[in-house]
User: Which sequence fits this backbone?
């Protein structure tokens, strides 16, 4: 690998490690289940990690990802096969619920850097 390619690879790797906006270190996937629950219903993420909520393609119903605490805003309807995501930039506890199925609740904990 020549010097320019080596430098570009090193810069790209560094951006991922530093969590530059637009990049994501990892992701936590939260799926809707057949019995109207989120699985898992609690995730712990670090700075730069993305949370993805999925409604499986074979799901018989639609769900929402709706913010259920005052420190964030989200209200998205997920048809079967759809997904939505968020990177939480500030530490805190972020609660969410499916507004169609009130017992379908969960929590994202964003740890300090």
Assistant:
């Amino acid at each position: 690998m020549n010097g320019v390619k080596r430098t570009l690879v090193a810069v790209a790797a560094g951006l991922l490690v530093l969590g530059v906006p637009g990049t994501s270190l990892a992701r936590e996937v939260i799926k809707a289940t057949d019995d109207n629950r989120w699985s898992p219903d609690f995730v712990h993420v670090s700075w730069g990690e993305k949370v993805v909520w999925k409604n499986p393609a074979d799901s018989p119903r639609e769900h929402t990802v709706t913010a259920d605490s005052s420190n964030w805003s989200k209200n998205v309807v997920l048809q079967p096969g759809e997904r939505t995501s968020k990177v939480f930039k500030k530490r805190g506890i972020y609660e969410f619920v499916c507004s169609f199925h009130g017992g379908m609740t969960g929590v994202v904990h964003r740890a300090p850097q």
